[in-house]
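Exercise 3.2. Students should predict the tertiary structure of the chain below and write it as structure tokens, then compare their answer with the key that follows.

Predict this chain's 3D structure.
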Amino acid sequence: LQRTNGTSANQVMFRAQGGSNVQPMKAEALSLMGTWLDAIEADNSNRTPAEKVIADKPADAVDACWVGGGTRVNDPAVIGSGGPCETTYPPHSLPRLEAGQPLGAPILKCQLRPANPADYGALSPSQSAQLAAAFPNGVCDYSKAGVDQQLITGTGQEFGPPRSIRQRHRSLRISARTHRSGRRTAVRLTARLGPCPATTWQRIVIQRLRGGRWVPVAVRIAGGHRCTTTVAVRIARPVRFRALSRFSSGYASAVSKPRTVSPRRFRHR
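Answer key:
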């Protein structure tokens, strides 16, 4: 990111291990992403999309890890920093890094050079022969760009022949449960989307009818195998609610049937 764009301010790294740490990390990540996306969507400035991502970044969108059963610790994700997150979750190496590839080098297929036994210490004649047999075409030359490596020209790039994506229809339902909350009625709205893609999170907007227009009440991220999300609101008069989910790759947009929720009436004795 820094080499290509000059900044990595659009990247935030969260780390956790174990259910007691992973679950609060996931909840925080989803909430943070929703807040971030809403801020970008509401940005009507003349900034470029990339500039909006950075300018509208929430204050708590910083590198962090979760330790000790769900405690968040803010700590820059920098290899070699020695910070609490790196100490708790030490980074692991990879075979390519051990073979000399620079950290962060965007090389998928490397160019080759002849294997030089002198690069591997004092090898015996038999070990040199084994080296030559293991790499008859040579070893990676990381001082050169990768084979057919090109600059990135945009986002969402795909490789291979063009493909046609059929947008599947899906259903979106909204239900409501009410209970008394002071002089008002507390409403718990539950939106359920199906079918639920297993590989993506779904953004669901809960709306209410006001002055003849549908206005957003809340934006939630629905996940899990059931694709459900809940919103709590309070009402003093009958209100019509609905749920909306925009299209995603392979799935069409969906709108639930409006549901009218009326406040409860209580008798005083």
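Discussion points: Residues 171 and 194 are 5 Å apart (CA to CA). The first helix runs from residue 2 to 5.
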